[in-house]
Amino acid sequence: MPSVAWWLLTLPFVAGAFLPLQAGINGQMARQISSVMSAALISFAVGTLALLCIVLAQRDLPSGEALRNLSWWHLCGGLLGAFFIATAAFAAPRTGALLFMALVLAGQLAMALLLDHFGWAGYREAPVSTGKLLGLVLIVGGVWLIQRG
What we know:
Radius of gyration: 18 Å
Structural class: mainly alpha
Largest sheet: none
Shape: globular
Order of helices and strands: HHHHHH
Oligomer: single chain
Number of helices: 6
Number of domains: 2
Number of strands: 0
Distance between the termini: 39 Å
Mean pLDDT: 95
């Protein structure tokens, strides 16, 4: 396997480190405005505005034809993001940051195992192995230990 640039390893690490912070901020906002779904909407609106500014600054708007050629499932990423944001705003303050993120990580890795094994969603096929399954079992065991507290 070729060496991966340091920034390509650092960027996902930093993005992952921001997830519990984002969940906490959104949970506090939900409490402040007494609405999980409104907090998720505000969070998405701010993110959408930021992305719109970046896309406009880069002059990188997709063509109408490119938009028309999207399949229905291409739009599901936004729905999945909305589900995550709403779930984080609701569940993270109730479970705590560590347990919430351990559960998120376990869910991410379980789905990643399936995506890689079957080559779904554009990922290259990489069959499930004993080592990968054992790694996932260890993560789930970690969730159990964290939950027992």
